[in-house]
Design goal:
Cd81 Antigen, Extracellular Domain, Chain: A; elongated; mainly alpha; 253 residues; Tetraspanin_EC2_sf
Length: 253
Amino acid sequence: MGQCGITSSKTVLVFLNLIFWAAAGILCYVGAYVFITYDDYDHFFEDVYTLIPAVIIIAVGALLFIIGLIGCCATVRESYCGLTTFVVILLLVFMTEVAVVVLGYVYRAKVEDEVNGSIIKVYDEYNGTNSNSQSRAIDYVQRQLQCCGIHNYSDWQHTRWYEESKNNSVPVSCCKASIGSCTGSLTRPEDLYQEGCEALVVKKLKEIMMYVIWTALTFAAIQMLGMLCACVVLCRGSRDLPYEPLVTGGTYA
């Protein structure tokens, strides 16, 4: 019965190591996705530490490739030293992912304050040229999120760009995609996106952080199962080893 338990645990452990390899790819993908997406919104928050969870997730993903290799080799060869190393590394990675979850919640709570504190300044620095990074960021966000202005399209009337252009219009990126003749004129407000961008940017950034949190939680649970199976193999397998008395110098009578 004990041998059956060991065999079952080893089978599950090998299968979990294959999952670890797949998880490594997924974690690296999620981390890269967060980096790429945040790059599009980086003008709306100033705290660079917001990306720390993404950095940790990519590092954990790379480490999981090595963990999967160690786990498979140690399980197949029944190496107790290898399995012990496997459990210790898994425990460290598990603790790291718990830290990612905590940091994710901390920075998710800070997103709204970050965006609220910087979005007015970004809109005020808009000049409508492609060479201006703030202009590119705002045009991208307004098209991507289908929004206009901070709270609504009327916010553009309080910007430096509106005062200098003096044409009673908002950027063309405020125009609904379905209306090809739209020029951004405020005389035709029905052609413009009605929702402001501030709330949508906050929502988008919070969603991205939740992807990180749920990814870390999911694979932390899988790693717990991996540690449990490895401990079962270690504990039961060690009892099945033959007893070898320690031989010291001297002779027996």
